[in-house]
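Hi there. Long-time user, first ticket. I'm pasting a complex I've been working with (about 696 residues overall). I'd like to know whether the download I got is complete or cut off, because the file seemed smaller than I expected. Thanks.
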Amino acid sequence: MKITLAYGGGGEETNKLIKNLFYENFKNDILLKAEDAAVVSLNGKTAFTTDSFTIDPIFFNGGDIGKLSIAGTCNDLAMMGAKPEFLSISFIIEEGLSFSDLEKIVNSIKNELQKVDAKIVCGDTKVVPTGSVDKIFINTSGIGKIIKENISAHNIKPKDKIIVSRDIGRHGSVVLAKRFGVDTEIESDCKVLWDEVKALIDAGIEIKAMRDATRGGLSAVLNEWSEASNIAIEIEEEKIPISDEVSGLCEIFGFEPMDLANEGTFILAVSPDDAKKAEDILKQFNKNASIIGEATEGNRVILKTAYGSKRYIDLPKGELLPRIC
Amino acid sequence: MNLTLKDLYSKFRDPNTIKALKKEIEKEALKLKEPMRVMEICGGHTHTIMKYGIKQILPDNITFIHGPGCPVCVMPKERIDHAIILAKQPDVILATLGDMIRVPGSNSSLAKARAEGANVVPLHSTLDVLKIAKENPDKKVVFFAIGFETTTPMTAALMKRAFSEGIKNIYYHINHVLVPPPMRAIMDGGEAKINAFIGPSHVSVIIGAKAYEFLVKDYNTPVVVAGFEPVDVMESILMLLKQKNEGRCEVEIQYKRATTYEGNTLAQKMIEEFMEVRDTFRWRGLGDIPKSALKLKDEYSEFDAEKVWADILPNEPIDDHKLCICGEILKGLKTPKDCKVFATACTPSNPLGSCMVSDEGACNAYYRYGR
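Hi, the file is complete. Here it is re-exported in full:
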């Protein structure tokens, strides 16, 4: 069975879709009131974010666009020290998407929500003619109470340590391998990161800055921090965790693992005294967590090799294309 | 035991090996009678030298001069315009290798043309063109073939497969260039004062180390064919130093795991089956160099995009931006840091000159790794 334009018409089919699929899977007291807007109670400082998700392929090793749409928005909240609480979700669906694919997507949204104990409290669905969008686009917005304040890209001081939560470049590798027709067993790192963040906060780690390394990867985060905090960041090449599969794929295509997107990997800046403890906590979630370097005086991101040379790490630029030879 | 890709390259990036080679190089460099000005012809080596910081760890009397071996960098604008014009034809799908997509022509690029609706497909593998042609029988698939001798056999292999499968809707725009002619042109020019060469890795796999004998005979300049990894480049520098200090001048192969003296004769034959040397080819920055590129043989004219679309493809030479010094960089006369627009008006996102476009271009490598 396929989704047709009738499902977006606002009539009987739309209602069926909403009741039988969305309400059934996302149900909670606020959503089921079915008012024009959700009513929620907030107190204290609150973080608010939005993100839209488009990906080809919509199902990939380690996840799908549904899981991604929850992880992406929840991680943006988590990176600000906020517990994801309430989410909105909007689907723009291309007519012809199979009903079973939509069901699969909705199911993984449900699973991901349960992991972080957040609620979808409002939503919208549009169905558009073939060719108007690529299969399905999803937007989610989220709000959450800030548990740990003053996490900011502007906070980093020389000597602060930089930690990466796991091996890098998985999500980008999965997508690029698919785009260029290479079979791979790499799984995306796509995952909600609240548990990791909560563990750090509960342990009293003095988090200076925290960011999930999505598009632009590790390179982008480090460059953004260097600029925002007006510091240099020196990274030791051999400390950066990269799986054999990701580095192999990068060899084949001529990509830099540091430039590739992640969807469940974050970078952390902490005061030097907390670094070892933070690394140990993160290692409980993924053994590849690693202190990769530190902030220093200056204004560039520098990679140090084990044989004494240095080079700059720049913001990734332009479309990622395989090199010619 | 499972062999992974990492097992293949990790030894060639091993910090301890690099440190040991550095020590040996320092010892030999002390004995040099005159500074060594070594040109790495190939953009892949430029990339390695910058990415691994090799320039920084070598003694001061060894200088790298970056050569013209970046296929994207040496394409003249008018030929890039060909690709854009062809891509805009309503019945054409233009397929080309990776970073060709970004290269600016006279006033657009394939990436911009694609955004305006042109059908442009970036390839990883040349043979993917077969699939595109089969899936689109009502379209003319133009393969914009680019690259030095490394990628030429793949174009020949594509033609062989297409003809044997009876696929008639693939056309070829051949921009394959040759490595030895510009090396000769640079030595004839003499201004770059090069006294040693690092020979390209993968080009040499195809054409063999014998292709560089003329540098020894005619110009008394040693050549070491090197692999692309940092240990390869370091070892090759050491081999060149030893030649200098022992008074030898010869073609040596460091990249023995893939290169032979004769090269890949099967690939050479396959190229000869479909292509022949052009009388002359205009190189961006270097100008016209006789017998420096390939074209399709006349018997394949009906598949030669340059001939099929001759009416709409301009051949007027188009000069580079006035402030761009890519030409002098490609000749080894200047480095990116000598350029006024480097990293200001000219960046990888908005390249004015060709050397900023490709990963293998000298300006791009300097911008990324060593500004």
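A couple of notes from our side: Chain B has a mean pLDDT of 93. Residues 326-369 of chain B form one domain.
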